[in-house]
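Internal tracking record. Fields below are filled automatically when a chain is submitted to the structure queue. Please do not edit lines marked as system-generated. If the sequence contains nonstandard residues, flag them in the REMARKS field before resubmitting.
Queue: standard
Priority: normal
Entity type: single polypeptide chain
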Amino acid sequence: GSITHCEGFCCAVVASSATRAQIGVDAEPIQRLEPAVERLFARSEERASWTRLAARPACGWGLVAFSVKEAVFKSLTPTSSRTIELAEIRLRLTPAAATEGRFLASSPGGAARGFWFIEEGRVHSGAVASPS
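SYSTEM-GENERATED OUTPUT FOLLOWS
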C-alpha cells in the first residue's frame, strides 16, 4: 500500500498481496520549482527531454517529475535492499495533454510504470513497480 497527503487532500491505496503489485501514490500542491531544485532530483537528460515535449503543464515539468518520482520511490522501497535516491530514477514522461499522461521509470531497485494528472491545484501520480 501507499499513502500521500498535502493540504486539503489525502489518499491511501492498497493492493492484494496475491497480485504481487507494489504501488505508490503521491500528490503535490501546484508550485513552480526553481531550476536549482529540479537539478537535485532530475537528471540532465530528463530536463532536456522536457523541452521536446509538445505539452506544457502550467506548473512546469519539474513538479510533475518530482511527484512521479515520489510515487515510484514509494512503490520500489518495500523490496529494495537500499534506499533509492530520486536522482537515480530514470524517467520518461509521455503526456497525453498538458494536464495528464503516463510514464515509465527505471532505477537500481527495479522499474515502474504509471500515470499522472493535474487536478484541483495538485499534481497526482500513481506507480506500479516491477522490482529487480
